[in-house]
Amino acid sequence: FALIGWGLMPLTNSIYDLYTHLTHPNIEGEQSSGRGMFSSLKEKIEKLTPWDDEKVKEKVHRVLDKEIKPFKDTFAFHVADHISQASKIGILVMTVDIFTLIGKMMGFQHVIMDHITGVFSKFAYSSWVAYRIKLLKRYFLEKSMGTTDLGKVNLVDNLLDGTILVLWLMRMLDFLEVETGYAVKSLFSVGATGTLVFGLASKDIASQTMAGLSLHLSEKIFEGDQVKFSDGTSGTITRMGWFETMIQNSDDVVVGVPNSQLTGQRVYNLSRTPQSQVKQTLRIRYEDASKIPLLLETIKEEIRTDCDKLIPGRLRAHWSNFEDDHLQVVVDAHFSIKPTGGEYHDNRQKVLQAIYRAVKKTGVSFEKSNVKVGK
Q: What is the pLDDT of residue 29?
């Protein structure tokens, strides 16, 4: 059975290729990937419906998807893949067994030598089964949601992962007790020092786990959201785990932040904000004070004309203050656009361009700042 793993997949693939050749003998260039058949099928179907290109494409894809599926999309592939993986694990178990026998023949006689093969085989097969269950669980969750972005279901996904891990650990510890005769409690019977070390180690793990659970239950952020925290950390959430959250910055660098550092902060979820603001403060020269009323009206007119998603009644342009060396004008506009992504930045550019056009039309000049950069 162990030797099946290396030859089962190529053999199954060859049988599938032979099956497709026998069932579709008139199709040239037939391959398991389905790429070589497209042009041939298209030529044959075009003879029947030469007047409708969309119908031709639809029929071609229907044949490729239903009659001749790619090998990796077939049930036979998944069955052969599972058998192949299990048999490869069998080879590893046999290898460990051989080395154990060699060790005994060389004189290594120890109680551990009598249990290595059994423990390793249980560990390898149970780990593989747990991993396959995890993938199957993920598949059904994505199937039920209709997308690979689970969002709110991410908490259920992580809880199920934790449940699988705990059950696997309990099963392994129970097996070790039966197989070796060492009870689980004996692992921790190392006196007060061992108890203190274990307590200190588990404290951090427990706090991180609780922080991760709190972050999931709060539903403040989900994977895929663009967020900003009060400490300045910002970016897109790429993964939320039990111990840390992965955040992709604007420069595409992914940073892992411990959940305990995020739970106590204020978070601004930009992805859930349907509106945005563009605010600018202008420095106008005192010589152009008489032109400011016209400037304000021209700015409003330019923004209303160029920005179609401006929220009615949410555009302000006012002369706000007298400063020592300039007059201060504030332009504040609100839009029905999320404050993130290309659409927001394009709209912000339109506002700046509208202000610039208004300044040029009215002949107003800006006052330069007197702040000097240090030598």
A: 42
Higher pLDDT among residues 59 and 28, named by residue = 59
pLDDT in tens, 177-193: 655 555 455 554 545 55
Strand partners, 328: 283, 321
| pTM of this structure | 0.51
Q: Which residues of 300-311 are buried (b: 16+ CB within 10 A; e: fewer)?
A: bebbeeebeebe
Tokens found for residue 84: 């192949």
Report pLDDT for 239: 84
Answer whether residue 195 shows pLDDT above 60. no
- pLDDT value for 197: 55
Q: Which of 211, 236, 229, 240 has the alpha carbon at shortest distance from 265? A: 229
3-state secondary structure the chain: CCCHHHHHHHHHHHHHHHHHHHHCCCCCCCCCCCCCCHHHHHHHHHCCCCCCHHHHHHHHHHHHHHHCCCHHHCHHHHHHHHHHHHHHHHHHHHHHHHHHHHHHHCCCCCHHHHCHHHHHHHHHHHHHHHHHHHHHHHHHHHHHHCCCCCHHHHHHHHHHHHHHHHHHHHHHHHHHHHHHCCCHHHHCCCHHHHHHHHHHHHHHHHHHHHHHHHHHHHCCCCCCCEEEECCCCEEEEEEECCCEEEEECCCCCEEEEEHHHCCCCCEEEHHHCCCEEEEEEEEECHHHHHHHHHHHHHHHHHHHHHCCCEEEEEEEEEEEEECCCCEEEEEEEEECCCCCCHHHHHHHHHHHHHHHHHHHHHCCCECCCCCCCCC
The two structure tokens encoding residue 100: 């154990």
Q: Which residue has the tokens 């070796």?
A: 180
Those residues with Cβ within 8 angstroms of residue 218's Cβ, 6 or more apart along the chain or in another chain: 263
Read off the tokens for 104.
Answer: 């005994």
